[in-house]
Write a structure and sequence with these properties.
Distance between the termini: 69 Å
Radius of gyration: 38 Å
Strand content: 25-35%
Oligomer: single chain
Helix content: 10-25%
Bound molecules: calcium ion
């Protein structure tokens, strides 16, 4: 008898969308392995069609797996290409042959069952089965089934007490309702101007119109998108203008796993540029000279400025300061750092640069994790470095940090690395 049923009929799954309504009696009893549905005899139901089922709105990935016992030696899972159904409203329709089933008592008497499992998460659902050939039997199966490991069995209908249906195949249609239904899950994307360069949206300056993407689909901030649940990669684009920097990761993975879950992605950016800096050249030309008085010189003397051989340099007048600063070179890095520090100290002392301004100063001790520090902290760090290491020739272990500080001050004196207080212009390719 088994061989009779073993005539291979290809398992075919067809996806269709069905309209809504209808009701079905659903008697059933629970077992350890699943639920054995009771049989509903519907002898005049040759023209079987799927009942119309209430289907929740939404888009769900539904995987359905049937284990194939056709060779009698053990089950083989019918491959995803044959058995996996993905649709947009949960309806699935298909045919499974009797040869896909197996006898639970290893004989020909049944009960007969096939294993099924949803493959993407836990679903509740209903499968309506028609047993063909001798008897036309229809039953509903309802229940929940865990992921593939759940491996619950769907049983052949019983044609009266103790009699298992002689059937050639099952037709089934049904639907799986993802649990939870997540039509409200969504992603929002905010772009903020990170004026205080701390990587946190605490600046009150959101930026509209910044180009971003969700799983490769472009959008512009602000974004508030219903996505359903799933995994998403949210990215921001770099603008054409190279003065912009990111203060947050430019790619964020978002996993919406819970019904109604809402995730916000915040991208922080800032742009750098001028901050009122005047150069070493300015402070050694006549315009600069007019601004340097005894108070400026006293301020400079209090610093730990060094000359070429590592000795203290305390300017007695403008001319000596000018000669010293124009001859500055980096053989002794402490000398060059002293010159750039002097330049910035004069900028701040004369009201050209705000001491609280933030600059990009990566590698300095003052910098936060993103590489930004205030002018005042960089000046203090530079002066402290000069106090302990006045001679930092090539090979000196203290030379590198002094060069890093020198570069940060040099860039600021040249108006390159100040964090701008408001967003710069931006455009995208
Ligand atoms: Ca911030
Ligand atoms: Ca002055
Ligand atoms: Ca001094």
């Amino acid at each position: 008898m088994k061989t009779l049923y073993a005539i291979g009929i290809l398992v075919i799954f067809i996806f269709v969308s069905l309209p809504v309504t209808a009701d079905y009696p659903v008697p059933m009893q629970a077992t350890a392995n699943g639920i054995i549905p009771s049989v509903i005899n519907q002898p005049n139901n040759e023209a079987f069609s799927c009942p119309v089922i209430q289907i929740p709105q939404g888009s769900y990935p539904v995987g359905f797996r049937v284990d194939d016992w056709i060779d009698g030696s053990g089950k083989q899972t019918i491959g995803p290409g044959m058995s996996k159904i993905v649709d947009n409203n949960g309806v699935l329709v298909g045919t499974i042959t009797y040869t896909d089933m197996y006898s639970l008592d290893n004989g020909d008497n049944g009960p007969w069952a096939f294993d099924w499992a949803t493959t993407e998460g836990t679903y509740t659902g209903k499968v309506t089965v028609k047993a063909g050939n001798v008897d036309l039997l229809i039953y509903d199966y309802s229940g929940s089934n865990a992921n593939s490991a759940g491996d619950a069995k769907l049983y052949a209908p019983q044609n009266g007490p103790g009699k298992w249906a002689k059937i050639s195949h099952f037709d089934f249609c049904g639907y799986f309702t993802p649990k939870p239904t997540c039509s409200t899950a969504h992603i929002s994307i905010v772009k903020f101007y990170d004026a205080n360069a701390n990587g946190i949206n605490d600046d009150g300056k959101n930026i509209d119109g910044w180009k971003v993407s969700i799983n490769g689909n472009d959008a512009f901030t602000p974004v508030d998108k219903e996505t359903g649940f799933g995994k998403y990669t949210v990215k921001e684009y770099d603008p054409n203008q190279t003065s912009w920097m990111s203060t947050t990761s430019k790619s964020v993975d978002v996993n919406l796993a819970t019904c109604g879950e809402q995730k916000k992605v915040e991208f922080g950016n800032l742009c750098i540029g001028p901050g009122g800096g005047l150069t070493l050249g300015f402070w050694s030309n006549p315009n600069g000279a007019k601004l340097v008085g005894s108070d400026d010189l006293a301020m400079l003397k209090a610093l730990n400025l060094k000359n070429a051989n590592g000795n203290d340099f305390d300017p007695s007048d403008y001319t000596s300061m000018r000669n010293w600063i124009l001859k500055a070179q980096a053989s002794n890095m402490a000398y060059m750092l002293s010159a750039q520090l002097t330049t910035m100290e004069l900028n701040v002392f004369n009201g050209k640069v705000d001491k609280n301004a933030i600059i990009y100063a990566p590698g300095t001790k003052s910098a936060n994790s993103l590489g930004f520090a205030s002018i005042t902290s960089i000046m203090a760090e530079a002066d402290s470095a000069l106090a302990v290491n006045g001679l930092t020739l090539a090979g000196s272990p203290n030379r590198n940090i002094q060069e890093t500080l020198k570069n940060a001050l040099d860039n600021a004196n040249n108006n390159i690395n100040f964090v701008q207080s408001v967003p710069c212009a931006f455009s995208f390719a």
